[in-house]
Amino acid sequence: MKLYYKPGACSLSPHIVLREAGLPFELVKVDLVTKTLADGSDFRAVNPKGQVPTLALDEGGILTEGAVIVQYIADKVPASGLIPAAGTMGRYRVQELLNFIGSELHKGVVPLFPMLNDVVSDTHRQFATKVLSGKLAVLNHQLDGKAYLTGDSFTVADAYAYTVLSWLPRIKFDLSPFPNLTAFAERVAARPAVQAAHAAEAQG
Question: Which residue, of 141, 165, 172, 185, has the greatest Cβ tally within 10 A?
Fold first, then answer.
């Protein structure tokens, strides 16, 4: 498999999951501004959406959308425990979290990125910060008494949540009011697969 990624972007989530699952894969860096690969070729010839993450499959074709990709990877190695079996309530709980993170947190952070300072008004920025705080409070509560979002086991939802939380220093968001999230981010960052993913992206 090939994972098309941009360092530090949402593609970090499936990158972590691939390493947690112990599957062989190749990293392919994408320039999202020019939509090109290192050899100068057009990334949109691989994925017409022009977005990462994109996973090129061993059997041919691609899979897109991070929340779907991580489930695909986890299902390839059921013994990894990265996601509960399909059809179980545990699976639906993880999918519930993936959707919440994607629609409420991921998209909630984007308007606050510094690169959008010239196009996002101060009023909108203040409103987006308030909304994001409320969503983070929900996730902070989800972690009450738990090591990870669904309990003691690391799942694909944790990889996605960690990825979004890793962006908060870039928008100078103070996470200190959310001690469960702070401890969670530190816990996930200490995992060997997560450290390996960061190291590989830093080298890329």
Answer: 165
Q: How many helices (H) and strands (E) does the chain have?
A: 8, 5
Distance, in Å, from the CA atom of 179 to the CA atom of 184, rounded to the nearest integer, reads 8
Label residue 171 exposed, middle or buried (CB < 10 Å: 0-12, 13-18, 19+): middle
Tell me the angle at which helices 66-76 and 12-21 cross, rounded to the nearest 10 degrees.
0
pLDDT in tens, 42-99: 999 999 999 999 999 999 999 999 999 999 999 999 999 999 999 999 999 999 999 9
CA angle 106, 109, 114 (to 5 degrees): 135
The whole-angstrom separation of Cα 109 and Cα 101 is 11
Question: What is the C-alpha separation between 50 and 35, in angstroms, rounded?
Answer: 6
- Cα separation, 88 vs 72, in Å, equals 16
Tell me the residue ranges of DSSP E strands in the chain: 2-5, 26-31, 36-37, 54-56, 62-64
Across-strand partners of 100? none
